[in-house]
Amino acid sequence: MRLSAGGLGPGLRHWIPVGCRLPYPSCRLVSSSRPDRRRTDIRDSMVGDGATYESWTRTGLIRRLRALEAELRTRPPTEEGTTADLPPTKTKRGVDPSRYSTRYIALKLAYLGKRYGGFEFQAMGNQPTIEEELWNALTRACLVFPDGDDEAVQFDRCEYSKCGRTDRGVSAFGQVVGLRVRSNRPVRRQKGDDEAIEEEEEEEQEEEEQETRPFDDVADELCYPYILNRLLPPDIRILAWCPSPPAGFSARFSCRERQYRYFFTQPAFSPRLAPSAGVAPGWLDVKAMRDAAKRFEGEHDFRNLCKVDPSKQIINFRRRIFEADIVEMENVQSAMPYLQDPEHRLGGDRSHHPKVYYFLVRGSAFLWHQIRHMVAILFLVGQGLEKPSVVSQLLDVDAHPRKPTYAMADEVPLVLWDCVFPDADVDADVDAKNRFQDALRWIYVGDERPINKFGPFGVIDGLWRLWRESKMDELLAHQLLMKVEGQGASQRRGDEGDARGKAGVTLFEGGNGGRMAGKYVAVMEKSVTQSPEEQNEKYAKRKGYASAEDMRAQKAIMGRGGETEKGGGGGCRGLSEVREETRDDGS
C-alpha cells in the first residue's frame, strides 16, 4: 500500500516530520499489489469462525490475535511463485528524534467522559481512556518519539504529569497535563551531516532564514491545539497551551486549587403524585442542601466521605475546602407545564420547572471518590431523609472513626471544572474568598489565529456539532414526554396511595431516575466499614509486610530512590508516596 497525500496543502505539511504517518482524511489508500495469500487465509479462517469482534472484550481480542499469530507461524511456506512477482515491501522510514528540538509545555484539555473508562490509561481496560486517545494523537502527529512499538503508551518518555485522575464517566473542562513535545525551533546541524542536509534542502533553507531573526516561542512555534484537535475524537478538545511553564513545574504537584461541579435537576426525578399534605416525591429541598454544603468548608478529616484504597497506605485524610455551595444555573430551563399542576408542583412554588443546579466545590486536593460521597449526602438531605447536621456528624471522626456504608452518587454529572496554578514564589497570591490566581500564561485556541476557533473545522464548529447532536436527542425526548403526558386521563391523587405506602422511599443518587429502596435506614445507623488504619494494616500483612508502618517505610525508601525532578520539565515519577498529601482523585 502507498499513501497519496496530494490533498494536503503546504500549510499542513510543514509540521509533519519525514517518516511520520499522515492522519488526514485527504490521504488516499491506493492498492499497489495483489493480496497476500497467507493474509487471505487468515481472514477466511476468522470469518469462518463466525466471529463478531465488535462485542469482544479487550482481553478476548488480544487472546484471539495471539492465536492467529501462532497459527500463522505453524503454517507451511507458500508455494513457489505465488509471491515472486510481488514488489518488495517498503520498510517504514522511522523518525530520527535527533533532527528535531523539543520543549516542555502544558496543555489544557476538555472532554466528555461518558464513553471513556476514565482519564488514566489502563492496559487491559474494556473502554478507551482519555490518555490513550491523547497518546494516539501525539504519536500520529509525531509530537512525541516513543521507543520501539508505536502502539505502546509510553508517557514516561516525555516527562509527563497530570493534574487530576478522573474516573470512568467523569468529564473535565479544565484538565491540565505537562509534557515534552517536538518543537519547531531549528536544530543546529553538526559537521559531516551531509546526507541529512541533501535530503532536506528545503528545510535547511527555512532554517537559514530563521537564523536571521530570533525564534518566537509562540508565533514561530507549532500550533499544538490545532494539530491535536484534528486528530482527537470530537468529545476531546485541547483548549489552550502554555509555552513557558515555570522551572520544576508539575501538573499534579504545582496545582493549588481544583474546582469540581456536580450537576442535577430540580425535580431530581419524575415527581410522584403529591400526598394530601406535603411535597411530591422527586423534589429537593435546595435550601437544606445549601446549609449542608456550607458545613464542608474549611479543613476537615474526610475519611467518612471517601473510598479508602489500602494499597496507597494513606494516613492523612485531612483536606481543605475553600468553597462549597449549591448554585442555580440560568437560561437552561425546559418547558414542562404539567409540573405546575397542584398534584406535581413543589408546595407553593409557582416558578417554572425543571431547573438545573450544580454543587460547586473548590479545594486544594481531594480523596478518592470524595466529591461523589459528598454529593450523595447532599441528596439525602435534599430529599428530607437526613438533616444538614449529618455532615457535621460525618466530619467528627473522633466520635465516628468508621464510615457508614452508604452509596455514593452517580459519576456522569461530575465535571473537573478548572485547575489553578498560582505563582509558587508568592504564597499570598489568594483573594479574600480563598481564590488563587492562575499564573500560567495560557495561549487559548483562536488567540493566534481566530479561524482556528470560529472557522471551518475550528474548535467551536466541532463543539457545536457535538452539542447539536445531544440537543436533538434532548428535544425529541422532551417532545415525546410532553406528548405522552397530555394523552389520556390524568391519574387522581388517591389512585397510588396504597402503592406508595408499600413501595417505601425512592432514593435519588444522581442518575436518570430514582431507586426504590424500601424502608430507609438513617446514615448514622447503617453498618460501618473498617477504619482506614484497620484496612491499611490488613492489606499490608496480606502483602507480606510486618505491619502497615513497615510497608509505608519501605515504600518511602523506594520513592526516594526513584525521585526525579527534570529541570524545566517537572517529571514526577516516584513521588506519589512521598507527596501523597497533594493527590487528587476527587471523582
The mean pLDDT is 80
Integer tally of domains: 3
Largest sheet composition: 10 strands, mixed
Instruction: Round the Cα radius of gyration to an integer and report it.
Output: 29 Å
GO molecular function: pseudouridine synthase activity; RNA binding
Domain Pseudouridine synthase I TruA alpha/beta: 292-422
Pfam families: PseudoU_synth_1
Biased composition (Acidic residues): 195-210
Question: What keyword list fits this structure?
Answer:
Alpha-Beta Plaits; 27% helix; TruA/RsuA/RluB/E/F_N; ten-stranded mixed β-sheet; disordered N terminus; 3 domains; alpha+beta; 15 helices; isomerase; Pseudouridine synthase I TruA alpha/beta domain-containing protein; 587 residues; two-stranded antiparallel sheet
Short description:
The protein has 587 residues and is an alpha+beta fold. It has helices at residues 10-13, 37-48, 58-74, 130-140, 194-199, 201-211, 224-229, 286-294, 370-382, 389-395, 451-454, 459-485, 497-503, 532-542, 548-562; strands spanning 2-4, 28-30, 102-111, 161-162, 171-182, 236-242, 257-266, 298-301, 318-328, 355-363, 414-420, 443-444, 505-508, 514-518.
